[in-house]
Amino acid sequence: MKRLLIPIVCILFVFTHALYSQCSDAGVCSIGSQHEQLGHSFSAGYAFGKSGKSDDLTFHSFHVEGSIRVLEDSRLSIVLPWSSASGPLGKASGIGDLTILLNQVVWKNTENQLSVQAGGKFATGSVNLGNLPQAYQPGLGTNDLLLGISFHTEPWLFALGYQLSPGRSSNAAIQLKRGDDLLARVGYKTRTDEFTFGLEVLAIKRLQEASIVSPSAQITSSFVSIPGSDQFQVNVLGNAAMKLSKSYSLRFLGAVPLRSRPVNVDGLTRSITLSIGLHYAI
């Protein structure tokens, strides 16, 4: 029965999420993510995506994530991606930005749990491969601060997050300065013996317009704002996990954009994405 269910679930997700747009930044979107337990875990996954914009970018990405229990009721998560982006101007691929996030439970009882999160997204990815614009690059070029708070009351999740992006990318083509992001998410999860299904609404508001180097700048650099880049996006995210054994599970993630991002200067917009991963927990 389990062998039959694996291809059925895969087919359903490919069909249901053919117009899938996920939050592709592993920074602010990791705030409020639910954990199965406070033990150790490891996961690896693959995603295929397209920007759906006039730039017509195609993305392939792999990620590895480790999560360990470090103190009582606390967990440290580390995520490192490898990504490839190709489009009309060329192709760039390499290691992306490292995300480290500490989740600490500050209050809990039988069914409720209040947690705080703090961490950072670090500029370990390249931003000048092939002399291509920022949207093609595996890294965003800034060291960002991540802060959040989440509340779980079975089967619901509520979370708020903030990503402070104080720097400017050294990308030679546009030298992008992104705005800060404010995130809110509401989720619901249900379980059976072998399956877990979840649904979330995730909204992100960019608080300032992005700026890039002026095309007319000659000797000294001057910067111009990009109208409409302080954008608001809303996604409905669906996720599912199928238990393969006591420690292993197969996981799927998908989303439908309710409000998409009209400006894709940072390369984070996805209109089509298919994602699958394997999770191991102790």
Return the domain count: 1
Residue-averaged pLDDT, rounded?
87
Main sheet? 12 strands, antiparallel, barrel
* CATH fold description: Porin
- CATH superfamily, by name, is monomeric porin ompg
Global shape? globular
Query: Which residues form runs of ≥5 with pLDDT under 50?
Result: 1-22
Give the helix level as a range of percent. under 10%
Q: Work out the radius of gyration.
A: 19 Å
The strand line-up of the biggest sheet is 1-2-3-5-6-7-8-9-10-13-14-15
Number of helices: 1
Q: Please report the distance between the alpha carbons of the first and last residues.
A: 25 Å
Structural class computed from helices and strand pairing: mainly beta
* Strand percentage: over 45%
Number of strands: 15
| Element pattern in H and E | HEEEEEEEEEEEEEEE
The CATH architecture: Beta Barrel
Question: How would you concisely characterize the structure shown here?
Answer:
The chain is mainly beta. It is built from 1 helix and 15 strands.
Detailed description of the structure:
The protein is mainly beta. The chain has a single domain (2-281), classed as monomeric porin ompg (Porin, Beta Barrel). 5% of the residues lie in helices and 52% in strands. It contains one helix and 15 strands; from the N terminus they run H-E-E-E-E-E-E-E-E-E-E-E-E-E-E-E. The chain has one helix at residues 2-16; strands at 41-50, 58-71, 74-87, 90-95, 98-108, 112-122, 144-153, 156-164, 181-191, 195-206, 211-213, 223-225, 232-243, 248-259, 272-281. The strands form two sheets. It has a twelve-stranded antiparallel barrel. It has a two-stranded antiparallel sheet with strand order 11-12. The longest helix is centred in the first third of the chain and has 15 residues, at 2-16. It starts with a helix and ends with a strand.
